[in-house]
Amino acid sequence: MGAVQDFTTYITTASHWWGERGILHRSLEHMRLSAASVFAAGAIAIPPALALGHGKRGGFLAQSIVNIGRAVPSFAILALLFPLALSYGFGLGFWPTFGALVFLAIPPMFTNTYVGVRGVDPSIVEASRGMGMGPAQVLFRVETPIARPLILTGVRIAAVQVVATATLGAFVGFNGLGSYIDEGFRQQDDGKLLTGAIGVAVLAFLTELVFSLVVRRATPWLAPSRVPDVVPPEQVEVLTP
Amino acid sequence: MLAANGPNSFIWWDWVDRHRGQIKDASLEHLRLTLIAVVIGFVISGVLAVVALRFRWTYGPITWITGVLYTIPSLALFVLLVPLTGFTTLTGEIGLVSYTLLILIRNIVAGVDGVPASVKEAADGMGYTPARRFVAVDLRLATPAIIAGLRIATVTTIGLVTVTGLIGLGGYGSLIDDGLKRTFSTPIVVGAGLSVAMAIVLDLGLVLLERALTPWARRRVAT
Amino acid sequence: MLAIGMVAVVAIAACSSNDNKATTTGGSSASAGAGGGAKPTVTIGAQDFGESAILAEIYKQGLAAKGFTTSTQKLGGFRDLEVKAFDGKTINFAPEYAASMLEFLNGKKGEATSDVTATVAKLKTQLDAKGLAAFNASDAVDTNALVMTQAKASSLGISSLSDLATKGKDLKLGGPADCETNAFCIPGLKRVYNLDLSGKFQALEASAIAAALDAGSIDVALLFSTDGRIAAKNYTLLTDDKKMLAADNVVPVATKDLAANSELASAVNAISAKITTDELIKLNKRFDVDKEDAAVIAKDFLTQNYLI
User: Fold this and answer.
1) The pLDDT of residue A239 is above 50
2) DSSP secondary-structure letter at A15?
3) What local confidence, expressed as pLDDT, does residue C8 receive?
4) Which one of B72, B195, B199 has the shortest CB-CB distance to A204?
5) B43 touches chain C (CB under 8 A)
6) What SS3 state is found at B223?
């Protein structure tokens, strides 16, 4: 097929890999933005979720707010932040996309952390209290480790979504892999288009893979494939686009 | 918004007023695209879930394939389909349906698996044929899990339909795209706001549906 | 339950709205293209910038008033997608620009000049090879315009494209995505001025380019000469001292069949005759700054010029 040939020609041309608009730079930028967004979102989402999950109060309200946030299309946030970023001196590309991605990453991390901590077997919590642990110790030495698989799964879900959605940043001037898709489409250049599409897909898969390994390594006490992805029915499954 | 309400305001109410027809069309189209995706996704997922439950070894491969589909970034998927299926509803729907499969299949299977073995045995003992038992017992008791999956799939799809605005489909995405291309915030705010509203309404609808389908859950609480 | 759901979906899908991004205005009753005497259906392609959308609407409504069945089609991009649409027969009419279209079709040879008659003649030869034809060219001209903010231009001592070539090699250019393939953007600068700005080029939506320039996110912007913001914001328009730019008069392009229709041709030419450069600037302002809809702007233009 002509398009596939264009693609292989495009990626085998050395000059396409170097420079500010080359494959390497754009891939690195894409990952840099994704990482920054996930970290920031984690810093915003996880502490309150830990506290609320431990305290078992106010969670319903927080969870509802988070659910509504999940329904806001990232594309729209991007489009709204763009002119604001320009007029307030944040420039194009990175910051508006960062804002939209942080917004996107918060719900899965919040929900999984909250549900994970809240779902710790009450008898274990009681036992630790009985052993003389204060609330902070209970949270950090008992509940968090037990909730770790769910928390990390939340981070994993967020990370993959962020990497995938960072593609849209191209429409607000972010120089990542999405730019290949935008330019390739407008210029009717199949080589660029496929480079972008396949590039982000590969990055998304790699992210998924790496995090799956991280989750597995971080929870050695669980049998290899028994890391729960699915949260029991009465709790909300966290998989969003 | 303190200054005179105009094209540079967050929402230019005059524009909203003048474009009510367009907004209504976008709403109907958005709803149509969402419902088609979720219903078709549900049917396909149902079939695949039954297969996975009946032939356990298929569960791994099925979730792997649907997982792969899920991981492909939506814009990339749509853009790759356009040369094959054009700027049509079909292109959008292929993508949208694909994204619902993973969550729906997993929740259906998890839901049926979650039915206590003792209940299934009791039903068998009462003379239910396997097929009947599956429909009358397994699925009914798996309803909360299935609806949980449907809720997520629906809210997810509503968000994804906005991305189809970039390949020219109607729906709220066309409003957002219009606003993005013209650096004009009003259609973006309208599109995003109505998207969220639609998600809340449909989510609520599914919660009510669950209540209606599982009367025994409430009865238990009442006594 | 499931059965009801399925029926509902089929019902919704059955009353499906149109798939492509076309909007149709009515014309004569008989089915379009049915036979010898019936008026042809005109499907007009609109590129991804305001002026193209406005021109598409102008021709669409103007022709509809003369009894043709017309519709517009958003191309989602620029000339690359437009030519593809012509090839794929999804459009049969498009408002174009003489020099740019010529250079697109001749592989950026550099044949276009500032002589509109000569340029259009060469264009017609190129179009003929593709089964297309051009109507009369309008007096209205819209060329690409490379601008910088006054502050930056004076601080770097750049006032012409030659200056840019010597002093501005490392500057960041922002423009529509087709700058890389447009004969009067990056390839043109390379050919005429020996200036390669592709290394740091940033593709942007047409409406955001000026804002990005103001914010300093880009150093040089590719705008259109009919963009009122150039004057309003006192941008420095870099002079084209080596004459890279050429006669980019508005000229509608269509399939040969359509162009052969004399009634259509005279209607189109009548409309084109009323379009001037100053008009374009005014119309663009309504779109870019006042955020009015292309359809409304077009209607006002046609009404004021007694075309509908």
Assistant:
1) no
2) G
3) 52
4) B72
5) yes
6) coil
Q: Do B36 and C19 touch (CB under 8 A)?
A: no
Sole residue written with tokens 């490379």: C146
On whether the CB atoms of residues C167 and C154 are closer than 8 A, the answer is no
So what's the ipTM on this one? 0.83
pLDDT band at A104 (very low <50, low <70, confident <90, very high): very high
pLDDT at C266: 94
Mutate to test the interface with C, among A182, A186, A192 (most CBs of C within 10 A): A186
Matching residue, tokens 């043109």: C188
Looking at residue A46, what is its pLDDT?
Answer: 94
Q: Which residues of chain C have pLDDT under 50?
A: 1, 3, 5, 12, 14-36
- Which residues in chain A have their CB less than 8 angstroms from residue B191's CB? 73, 76
Chain B contact for C7 (CB, 8 A cutoff): no
Q: Which residues pair with C42 in a beta bridge?
A: C70
Backbone angles phi, psi at C143, to 5 degrees: -100, 170
Distance from the Cα of residue C182 to its chain's centroid: 12
Q: How far apart are CA C136 and CA C273, in angstroms?
A: 8
Taking the Cβ of residue A1 and every Cβ of chain B, the question of whether any pair is shorter than 8 Å is answered with no
Q: What is the pLDDT of residue B3?
A: 59
Q: Do C151 and C214 form a contact (C-beta atoms < 8 A)?
A: no
User: pTM of the predicted model, to two decimals?
Assistant: 0.86
DSSP state of B135: I
How far apart are the C-alpha atoms of B112 and B117, rounded to whole Å? Answer: 10
Pair of tokens at residue A126: 């009681």
Q: Which residue has the higher pLDDT, B146 or A67?
A: B146
DSSP C120-152: HHHHHHHHHHTTEEE-PPPS-B--EEEEE-HHH
The rounded distance, in Å, linking the Cα atoms of B177 and B170 is 10
Cross-chain CB nearest to C21 (options B25, B87, B181): B87
Confidence band of A116 (pLDDT split at 50, 70, 90): confident
Are A179 and A27 in contact, with CB atoms under 8 Å apart?
no
Q: How confident is the model over B197-209, as pLDDT tens digits?
A: 999 999 999 999 9
Mutate which of B9, B57, B59, B75 to disrupt the A interface (most A C-beta within 10 Å)? B75
Mutate to test the interface with A, among C171, C217, C233, C288 (most CBs of A within 10 A): C217
Q: Tell me: the pLDDT tens digits for A134-148?
A: 888 888 888 888 888
Does A181 contact chain B (CB < 8 Å)?
yes
Contact A241 B102 (CB under 8 A): no
Q: Do the chains contact at C17 and B183, CB–CB below 8 Å?
A: no
Task: Kindly indicate the confidence band of residue A1, based on its pLDDT and cuts at 50, 70 and 90.
Answer: low
